[in-house]
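Table 4 source record.
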Amino acid sequence: PSQGPDGVCGPCSEIYYLPPGSTKTVEIWNLVFTQFNRVGSPPNNLQPLPKKNIDTGMGLERCASTLQGVLSNFEIDILKPICQAAGDIVGVKYEYGAPEGRALRRIADHVRACSFALHEGCGPGPEKENYIVRLLLRRASMEGFLLGKHEPFLSQLVPVVADMMKHPYPEFGQTVESVQNAIREEEKQFLRVVETGIGRFQKLVHHAKKEGSLVISGDAAFDLHQTEGFLIELTESLAANEGLSVDMTRFLECKGQHKQASGRGAFANSVMSAGPLDALRQAGGTKFLGYENTQAEAEVVGIIANGQLASTFDQHGTQVAVVLNQSPFYGEAGGQVGDLGALIGHGIHFEVQDTQRDGELLVHIGLLKSGSLAVGTKVSAEVDVLRRAGVHRAHSATHILHHALRKYLGENATQRGSKVQQDELRFDFAHPKGLTQDELIRIEDEINSRIAEGAAVSTRLMPIAEARTLGAMALFGEKYPDNVRVVSMGEFSRELCGGTHLKNTGQVGLCRVIRDELVAAGVRRITCFTGPKALARIRATEELVKEASSLLKAPPDELSKKIESLQAELREARKELAKHTVASLADTALHLVAGAETINGVKLIVHDAAGCPRESLKDLIDRIREKAPSVVILLGLVVEDKVAFISCVSKDVLVSKGLNASDCVKTAAKVCGGGGGGRPEMAEAGGKDPAKIAEALLAGAAYCRGKLGA
């Protein structure tokens, strides 16, 4: 065990099964006899642990595959039917060794996992466990999309999952419908993302080929992923179909840079999961002093640099993690962000850019600005008090908001997550529909009423059973010890909470509800600003009203009337424009018929209708048909970065030549990466690449000429 990453380790036993007739073994059991802490490179890098243990794990479904005599756990009696059902729904027969087999297995596995998550109340969303559910559903939907299934289908598998699992989990059958609804809505949302993203993807392909490159840049792929939610796996698959690849090295660099800029970041994630923390846990935790203090004297007990424990550190400008014996810094937990600040010593200045919690350890992440650090160094740990005060305002306002939601929306408006930062909070809660303007006003009024009340904020440690008896609300998804900290505000709010707060609600000052939005099926999110940020928002709104008043030349209290008047004027102007459009269409039709190509007595009109309103294309076709009874028409138009095609074939041509309007538009749209269809005499289609409209119209014209016998 001397080889490998730093952390706890030991010798292990692994149990394998070799199926009859197979050369591939299946690991069904593993036991690790944990007895060392591995630090640094061998030799002499194994330090005995004070407490040894055995870590064991057995794969239940792998054992089932062994007992049932099949080669994979996906072939056992409760999983294979789900794979087969996935194939039936997608339209591909499931066979274990077939090329499509892996994709169908992913679909089955992901839908089963998400069905149970939704059954337990964890739906798709943007953060933590909710994001995992969203990612699994989107990857399953992507697999179906790549197999040719371009409409929602995953929800159809939920009854199959329920049937396969009904003996061990009979209660799952009670939530099948709600689980299906949640999955269906998430898949619809993802397919809209795909529809939007494919247009941008086609532009990336066009750009790469224009530049003579076989690689889509990692920056462009990440931008598509970040702004559109377009899965990188989908980008890779579609690129391969075009004979291109994606610069994944650069994509991962961009992803890492984004994490570091927007959240705890790649470095913090690596520190929080690295082996060195295991050794520090053995030595004990960090005493948290932050409920009463924002400054404290402390001693460095651990340094994590470059993924390893270090006894000293003197690199300036390189991120490093520092653990102290005691600290006033709050580590990110319960939705509240970690504290910022500095560690100051003799010639030492360490900028704390984030604070994370790992069990009893507080990990201070940041940059050494001057001096050097060593285990045993004495420092003054100083929290950024202005930022902490803003976090206090937002956190206490979060509790008041929770109270207001339950008061006006009912007891079922329970918390599903939160994010508390300096004078800004996001609060996710269970609710089936959007809030009305009246509800939002009442909720905001209740919050500010409780702020004006100046109710005392108190904390008390008590057994969790007592806290629940008193009606203290728990944070969704959090785990609590036997003794918990209860935060009370007056007589109206009592919650289990380990975060930091104000002394009384009046210190919040002001709270403004900024928005209410849907984040997952049955889950809403309210965003609020507090204190100075709320005041700044009010002033910004006032400035916007003043600017609008100046531009519209109307006092603020008459703006709505002025806007209504302008809208009426706009409607009249559009009516006048429509009259002129009719006259213009007649002139355009006359011009097109006069210049049309005639083939065996049939006029062929193929035209880029740039400048013509999308809704007027059919009117233009009617004008042309009035002047040319035996005609084939194909019109194309770029509308908002997409291409619209419409074709019309007169009945005599349809009968005598076999020329079909549906085939005509399909031929053109295919060139632009789209499709469509309709009736033989009239059809419409869409394309995704406006740059190819001329090429598409030429392809449509060639199809028509061939049918007309040119």
